[in-house]
Structures are given as C-alpha cells and as structure tokens.
Amino acid sequence: MKAIIPVAGHGTRLEPHSNYTQKCLLPVAGKPILAHILDRITDVGVNEVVLIVGHHGDHVREFCKSYNKNMVFTFVEQKEQLGLGHAVGLGLEDVGDPALIILGDSIFEMNYLKFVSSQKNSIGVFEVPDPERFGIVELDGTQITQFVEKPENPNSNLAIGGIYWILSQQKLQNALSYLYENKIQTKNEFQLTDALQHMLLLGEEFTTSMIDICLDCGIPGTLLSTNKELLKENFIHPKSTVENSVLNNVTIMENCTIIDAELENVIMLPGAIVSNCKFKDKIIGYNETHKHIEYAI
C-alpha cells in the first residue's frame, strides 16, 4: 500500500525554528512529527511512502534513511508552491490503485486499519465547535454531498482533518488535471478539496471516518499542546545534561544543557542552554542560550 505525505512547505508559522529544518522534523514527545506519522501507518500495510519535499528536503531524506529499513521511500520535489492539490498530484501514479494521503503537520489518533479497509473513498473528519474556521464536509446520511471551505453559514460541524483514503490514484489525478486545464484555484492555489469536489460531481462516492484525536503541530501553541498530550513522561536525550532542575512535560533534544531550572511543557531543540530560568509553554530554539529568566512564556 502507498502513502503520500506532503512535507514541502516552509512552515512560516513555526519560524524561526523551521528555518533550521523541515517543520515535519521538529520534535514532539521525543521524536520528529514525521516519525509519529510513520509509526501509525507501518502496521496497516503501508510499505511505500512518497514524500513531497521542498524546504530542507535533504533533512527529510537523511531522516528516512534511518527510520525503517523495510519501508520504501520515494522523494519528489515540489519546485513551486502551487497548493496542496498540486503537491499531492506529484505523488500520484496513473493507476487504479488506492493511496493513503496524510498531511505532514498533524498527528491523528484513529482506527487506521478500519480507515484503509473502506470500500469507498473516505475522509478523516473531527467535530469542531467553530466550523466556519475549517474546511468541512456536508452529509446525507453517511455519504458526503459537498466539500465546503470555511463556510459562512455551516450546515455541518465535521472538519476535514488532513487524512484521506482514495481508492483510485488515477481518478484523483484526472480531477487535478481538470483543475490545471481550467485554471481552477482557490486562494491562488490548486486545492485538494477542489479536486475531491470534482470527483464527487462525477459520481464518486465519499464517506467519512472519525478521527478520535487530531493533534495539530502547525504553530508553536499547538506543537506544545501536542507535546503535552503525547508525553507519558519527560523525554531527555542521553547526550544532554540536566543538573539541579525540575522538569515537567518536557522534550529535551540532544546536546542541551539545563542547570538550576524549572521547565514545564517545554521543547528544547538541539544545542540549547538554560541556566537559572523558569519557563512554561515555550519552544527553545536551536543553540539558544537563556540565563536568569523567570517564567517567560
């Protein structure tokens, strides 16, 4: 089974941390976001992963070399940022085989085996209190009747999560080609939801699968909340040093130094140094040094 994971974006909302590496490689609960995604799909029959790369694509390639020797990785470069639909299209083949599509900046807790066993195209969704902020699906019973992007007067509270089961790569590829040929864009980009809507109009059936927990990692606040959600205990890299410190819900990557500090729900990127500080809900960047700071957020 094939999975397509777009990880080409710069991740401007995670700057400056994403300046130094691909955002999907930023750590959460002790390992890169991408590792959490791959961990969840290895047991359901995925043996080929196509990664759509761009910004710091070399870092993604290096990570995949050491991840899983039994997983076949293919890398396709997205040279222009033309939208999610365009990115996904780069990984499709002109065949009738299915594909699992997962965005590279979220971690989903759900029944993956049930999801990829669906005999219909399926979209991972989750309930939200404010559907006007999301792309949503409208339903007739269990069948999707429309994909709507940030509706002013929503008829549904089911948000599109960012995980898709597509039965025919060829049919999605044809739908994307229709967008390209007719220059159909939303916000100046070729959107995946527009291609799915075109498939729907051509008679393709889509159903939904509920996402139990959607863990967004796309901005600093949600990256920290995801870190807190996933951590069962502190993660401290063996190559880091901790002296006389109190740590709670922390991810400490390699070559960090922590002395006389109190840290709560903190992610420290490689090489960071903290001394005589109290930090809460903070990402401390690559090789940053902080001394004598109390309760900075």
Classify the fold: give the CATH topology of the largest domain. Spore Coat Polysaccharide Biosynthesis Protein SpsA, Chain A
Q: Give the CATH superfamily of the largest domain.
A: Spore Coat Polysaccharide Biosynthesis Protein SpsA, Chain A
CATH architecture type of the largest domain: Alpha-Beta Complex
Supply the number of helical segments: 7
Low-confidence stretches: none
Give average pLDDT, whole number: 93
Strand order of the largest sheet: 5-4-1-6-11-8-12
Number of domains: 2
Total strands: 20
**How far apart are the termini?**
43 Å
* CATH uppermost class of the largest domain: Alpha Beta
Structural class: alpha/beta
| Fraction of residues in H or I helices | 10-25%
Bulk shape: elongated
Element-by-element helix/strand order: EEEHEHEHEEHEEEEHHEEHEEEEEEE
Instruction: Report Rg.
Output: 20 Å
Which sheet architecture does the biggest sheet show?
Answer: 7 strands, mixed
Question: What is the strand and helix layout of this fold?
Answer:
Blueprint: E1 2-7, E2 27-28, E3 31-32, H1 33-41, E4 48-53, H2 57-67, E5 72-77, H3 84-91, E6 99-102, E7 106-109, H4 112-115, E8 121-127, E9 135-140, E10 143-149, E11 158-166, H5 169-181, H6 192-201, E12 206-210, E13 213-216, H7 220-230, E14 235-236, E15 241-243, E16 246-252, E17 257-259, E18 262-268, E19 273-284, E20 289-296
Parallel strand pairs: 1-4, 1-6, 4-5, 8-12, 14-16, 15-17, 16-18, 17-19, 18-19, 19-20
Antiparallel strand pairs: 2-3, 6-11, 7-13, 8-11, 9-10
